[in-house]
Design brief:
This protein has 16 helices and no strands.
């Protein structure tokens, strides 16, 4: 991290501090953690479940604040992030640091008290992974930053599962893998039409380090692997006919989008302002929510005794 120029006037409002928590990312964290908890074979008392999801959300917000504190210098030179509270001069960097540290401690301690120590440990590890492994180490070092660093966003359903069961399971790691494999094509599609941001910030995203043709190939390769994983999950205990139908339709669309991106060259892309890449990125935003929504539907049907889980 390098210092952010101190010419700004810090006049923070409550909304600015909330923005530090990355509420959009928090929504995905809360939803996937909730699905992980409800898809588990053991039920959770509603009060414990609500408290656990709340503290997982606070932990996710803490990660966001710490990430914004560390990345304030590169956020200031990227168009996509220049309006975040610190580079916009609304929040002082040390305030983001103090907020992130305080919320991290609070969330981990309270999740341990409300759920179990293993869930608290996993939440602490997730915050550490996002700040230290991804933000401080990988992001500015290697074009594989988002591949490895994507694990940080994939832990919430595992934590939710542990809240309910107190242990790990294959099904929890399948949900982890779904997010983990989705993350690279999701971000690489964004990087294709936002490359100048990463150039300006000197972040070695794949588009910068290896070029756009290589990025397009990587998107297709990871999408093929993701399709196999996503459809295969339909035949496990967290899957079923509703999930499998959803997965087949979504993954056919996703694979077609990745194939179209792979076929493109820069003349085509620049000519239509990266319309294909933008469409794929928008689809990726719905992709994960719909898959986890289908897992939630399957869990609800199992709870009503209407299905045994999986496709037989």
């Amino acid at each position: 991290m390098t210092d952010v120029p101190h010419t700004q006037q810090y006049e923070a409002e409550l909304g600015d501090y909330f923005a530090l928590l990355k509420p959009r990312v928090m929504q995905l964290v809360v939803f996937t953690a909730l699905v992980g908890m409800l898809a588990a074979p053991q039920s959770v008392h509603p009060v414990i479940g609500f408290a656990s999801i709340l503290f997982i959300a606070i932990g996710a917000g803490a990660s966001g604040a710490l990430n914004m504190w560390w990345d304030a210098d590169i956020d200031a030179v990227m168009r996509r992030t220049a309006k975040r509270p610190i580079p916009a001069g609304k929040v002082e960097p040390r305030e983001a640091l103090y907020l992130g540290v305080a919320l991290s401690g609070l969330s981990v301690m309270m999740l341990g008290l409300s759920a179990n120590l293993l869930a608290a440990f996993m939440l602490a590890f997730t915050i550490f992974f996002y700040l230290v492994i991804y933000s401080m180490w990988l992001k500015r070092l290697t074009p594989q930053n988002i591949v490895i660093g994507g694990a940080a966003g994939a832990f919430p359903p595992v934590i939710g599962w542990i809240v309910a069961t107190g242990s790990f399971s294959v099904e929890a790691w399948l949900m982890f893998a779904l997010i983990f494999m989705w993350t690279p094509p999701h971000f690489w599609a964004l990087a294709l039409f936002m490359r100048s941001d990463y150039d300006d910030a000197d972040v070695p995203m794949l588009t910068v380090a290896h070029g756009r043709p290589a990025t397009r190939r990587h998107i297709l390769i990871y999408t093929v692997l993701l399709v196999v994983l996503a459809i295969g999950t339909g035949f496990t205990a967290v899957g079923g006919y509703v999930y499998l139908t959803t997965a087949v339709i979504l993954n056919a669309m996703f694979l077609l989008g990745a194939y179209r991106i792979w076929q493109r060259d820069e003349d085509d892309a620049e000519g239509d302002n990266y319309a294909v890449e933008r469409k794929f990125f928008r689809l990726s935003l719905y992709y994960l929510f719909l898959h986890f929504g289908a897992i939630l539907v399957e869990a609800t049907l199992r709870g009503w005794g209407l299905t045994g889980g999986g496709v037989s």
